[in-house]
UniProtKB/TrEMBL annotation:
It holds the Pfam family CagX. It comes from Acidisarcina polymorpha. This is Conjugal transfer protein TrbG/VirB9/CagX. It comes from the Bacteria. Keywords: Signal. CDD domains: VirB9_CagX_TrbG (cd06911).
């Protein structure tokens, strides 16, 4: 195998394995949630590497934000007073409460939940409008804002700046660790590839088979097919359909297949793994 083909095969294998294991997160349409003193906090669904924007009523601005877990979550209300808060989780499956106090003295409490590992519902909230059902909230909005003394504002700003800086450093460290792990994986992955399958090359060429190989977790079949062949696994001489992903001429099977075959009509190409010493 040429170095150019080996590079192409390796890239395809890495891409296929990643697609098989990474959930596809999708943003939900913006929605409105209503907080109430006598009810449980509404849940906002957030996702790793995604930002969820919390928006207060048009008449209010964020005065202060408190979170139960400031290690696993980043809350950013910006350096200039506004009605927006950006929410970003750093740990999968984590949850925390979030308390928002507006410049009019209204309080909003919500629950944040990280959902990237949920398989039945991959949708996360990209934008959420928050209001309150408390009659006093409307009364407070009709009044003048509650101003914070300059000394307290400066102290709070310094605290928020430190927390944001700590969060940024932690996030940078996380990104660096992920990048290092990815580079290490790319460097070691070629050594896990095994091109130890045999098949009838003439029949394979007629059907469109180009290469069959495996790594430690998957078996791959690459070809240029006029029509997508059915894929079977052979056990005790009997063929059975198996689970696989197929895209752009590449079969990705989530296990090692010792023996099997591809079939279209009367055309059939058997393949098997070459055991050591055989």
């Amino acid at each position: 195998m040429t170095s150019k083909l080996f590079t192409f095969v390796t890239a395809a294998a890495i891409g296929a394995a990643g697609n098989a294991q990474t959930p596809h997160l999708q943003p939900s349409a913006p929605r409105t949630i209503v907080t109430a003193d006598a009810a449980a906090p509404p849940v906002v669904r957030a996702a790793l590497l995604q930002s969820t924007l919390i928006e207060l009523p048009a008449e209010e601005k964020v005065a202060t934000v408190f979170g139960g877990d400031t290690v696993s979550w980043v809350f950013d209300a910006g350096h200039v007073a506004s009605r927006y808060i950006s929410i970003k989780p750093k740990v999968a499956d984590s949850t925390t409460d979030l308390h928002i106090v507006s410049d009019h003295g209204n309080e909003y409490t919500i629950e944040l939940k990280e959902i990237s590992t949920e398989k039945d519902n991959p949708h996360f909230d990209s934008k959420v409008y928050v209001t309150s059902s408390d009659p006093r909230a409307a009364e407070n909005i009709a009044k003048s804002p509650v101003f914070v003394p300059a000394a307290e504002a400066d102290a709070k700003e310094a605290q928020l700046k430190k927390e944001a800086d700590d969060a940024r450093k932690a996030l940078e460290a996380d990104h660096k660790a992920v990048a290092t792990a990815a580079e290490s994986y790319k460097a070691t992955y070629p050594g896990t590839l095994h091109f130890d399958y045999t098949w009838d090359q003439k029949k394979g060429a007629a059907l469109g088979v180009e290469q069959i190989w495996r790594d430690d977790k998957f078996t791959y079949l690459r070809g240029k097919f006029q029509e997508t062949p059915a894929l079977y696994e052979l056990k005790d001489g009997k063929g059975s359909l198996i689970n696989y992903d197929f895209a752009n001429g590449l079969y990705t099977i989530p296990k090692t297949v010792a023996q099997g075959y591809l079939s279209i009509g009367k055309q059939r190409v058997d393949f098997r793994q070459i055991k050591a010493g055989s």
